[in-house]
Design goal:
There is one protein chain. The chain is mainly α. Helix content is 47%, strand content 5%. The two termini are 12 Å apart. This is XRE family transcriptional regulator.
Length: 75
């Protein structure tokens, strides 16, 4: 499972709020919602975030192996 937990810390370090992404960078509200829910986003979206935040992909997303049936990762 791909999670976007590192994104929020990277945004904080760079002084970029969700509001700033929407208003100053014209980032899609739908994509931001998908990131908050750890849903699928395109590589274009990830690339855009890396450009805006001047960071690497590892500072935006992390891969965690899927858990066995019956176990869920806390959201």
């Amino acid at each position: 499972m791909i999670r976007y937990d590192p994104l929020w810390e990277t945004m904080k370090k760079r002084g970029v709020s969700q509001y700033k992404l929407l208003k100053d960078y014209h980032f899609s509200a739908g994509q931001l919602s998908r990131l908050r829910k750890n849903e699928n986003v395109s590589t274009y979206t990830l690339n855009t975030l890396c450009k805006i935040l001047d960071c690497t992909l590892e500072e935006v997303a992390v891969y965690l192996p899927d858990e066995p049936d019956g176990e869920k990762h806390p959201d």
